[in-house]
Amino acid sequence: MLTSNMVFGGIVIPWELLQQSFWPILIEGIKVTIPLTLISFFFGIIIALITALVRISNIKPLRWIFSVYVSAIRGTPLLVQLFIIFYLLPELNIMIDPYPTAIIAFSLNVGAYASEIFRASILSVPKGQWEAGFTIGMTYRKTLFRVILPQALRVSVPPLSNSFIGLVKETSLASQILVTELFRKSQQIGATNLDQIVYIYILAAFIYWIICFVLSLAQHRLERRLDRYTAR
Amino acid sequence: MLAVKGLKKTFGTNTVLKSIDMQVDKGKVIAILGPSGSGKTTLLRCLNALEIPDEGIVGFEDHQVDFSQEVKQQELIKLRRKSGMVFQSYNLFPHRTVLENVMEGPIQVQKRDKQTVRAEAIELLNKVGLKDKKDLYPYQLSGGQQQRVGIARALAIKPELMLFDEPTSALDPELIGEVLRVMRDLASEGWTMVVVTHEIKFAQEIADEVIFIDGGVIVEQGPPAEVLSHPKEERTQRFLHRILNPTE
């Protein structure tokens, strides 16, 4: 058991402080960062799928609206989007906590980026698959849901997993609108231990890393399972 | 059974079909031949509205579509359901097993009873010699086997008309025979078939009528004994000579 500070070539590592801080930071990660990621990703994926389907359809005005949405989100910083939504909602007399505010912002952000993933993977399914659906009598919608989407979703799993892991880290921006998640907790601890603040941030980074490492293992397993109908 | 009148199709500035008339009688096998780029595949794809003609009528006895006017989506779907289609590149659903591929149309589109459809699908797979492959995925099959599943899938919706778009063109030579054998069986069972093909010998053997098409027009048509053995038109003669003597 390491109970006192250790010294390496003049650098003093505050083990005791790190041990004391590990659980409080990790708990905010489990209680706030991970649910924030999961919920935002869930809604983001739904928004993304709708956006992608509208953008490959031929409903002109809707296509235009959704294109503007994707362009605007992709063309502005997430931090700015967070701030705008944080200050915009009260202007509209919508009073909600920072946490749901962050969910709205992250969902809209994921929605725009992931819609491009869906759109590309739908377009990557060969045209012959649409035609095969049509020739056995399927409508556009039936072909889309029975033939095209199952194949497109398989293709979109790796890039979506990347977005998901990216989102875990982006949720740290929620600290800026007062959501006490993993990073804000470490800021708070750091504020009372200013001399050792760099070690607290390294600890926070380490915890993000562990979470993302576990998620990427899950990603590999998912991809292997989905490989069952493709030639190797 | 099917009458086509004044069919025209243009892609951009390229006129692919210039006023095609043709007739398909019940139980007959029509072979469409022609050089590459002649419009033969486009003609076939117009018959089930995979390509939308600019003008002309595609008419079954109980369902006519006039493409000179605005055509509703519903009309196109109704037209499509008259025919089954076999593609050059098979286009099987890669995420479904062989049996599921065959059952998809009857179950999802025709909403028929699952047990009956399953029994029929297995019977169809038996007919094309692939009953024992029913639980495999398409990637586990050879090209010839995939194409035979493609035929079974098209037959499963019980179409009035079977369309074949160069069904053996993507196959290795030694696999062509197994697909042609299945098609020969269908012809002798009385299926009405329109086949775009390069297999002259096969056309000679099973077709009731051969249509030779070039430059978007029907150059010559008639029984294979006339068109293939004694072509009148010079363009037909040249085409047949090229195909039968590829190294000259």
From TrEMBL, chain A:
The entry assigns this protein to a family as follows: Belongs to the binding-protein-dependent transport system permease family.
Q: Which UniProt keywords apply?
A: Amino-acid transport, Cell membrane, Membrane, Transmembrane, Transmembrane helix, Transport
What is this protein called in UniProt? Answer: Cysteine ABC transporter permease
Query: What PROSITE patterns would the database entry show?
Result: ABC_TM1
How this chain sits in the membrane, per its record, is: Multi-pass membrane protein
Keyword Transport in annotation: yes
Q: Which Pfam families match?
A: BPD_transp_1
- Compartments it resides in: Cell membrane
> Ranges for the ABC transmembrane type-1 domain?
30-219
**Family matches, as InterPro entries:** AA_ABC_transptr_permease_3TM, ArtM/GltK/GlnP/TcyL/YhdX-like, MetI-like, MetI-like_sf
Stretches that traverse the bilayer: 32-54, 66-89, 198-218
Task: Quote the cellular component terms of the Gene Ontology held in the record.
Answer: ATP-binding cassette (ABC) transporter complex
Q: Record's NCBIfam families?
A: HEQRo_perm_3TM
Q: Which PANTHER family match?
A: L-CYSTINE TRANSPORT SYSTEM PERMEASE PROTEIN TCYL, MEMBRANE COMPONENT OF AMINO ACID ABC TRANSPORTER
Q: What Gene3D superfamilies does the entry give?
A: MetI-like (1.10.3720.10)
Q: What's an example of a GO molecular-function annotation for this chain?
A: L-cystine transmembrane transporter activity
Transmembrane as a keyword of this entry, yes or no, is yes
According to its UniProt record, where is this protein mainly located? membrane
From TrEMBL, chain B:
- Membrane topology field: Peripheral membrane protein
* Pfam families per record: ABC_tran
Write the lineage as a comma-separated list.
Answer: Bacteria, Bacillati, Bacillota, Bacilli, Bacillales
Q: Name one GO cellular component term.
A: plasma membrane
Judging by the UniProt lineage, the source's domain of life is Bacteria
Quick check: keyword Transport in the entry? yes
Keyword Ion transport among record annotations: no
Gene Ontology MF, one: ABC-type amino acid transporter activity
All residue ranges annotated as the ABC transporter domain in the record: 2-240
| UniProt keyword annotations, A-Z | ATP-binding, Cell membrane, Membrane, Nucleotide-binding, Transport
Mind telling me what this protein is named?
Polar amino acid ABC transporter ATP-binding protein
List the subcellular locations: Cell membrane
Q: Which organism is it from?
A: Terribacillus saccharophilus
Name residues in a coiled coil.
none
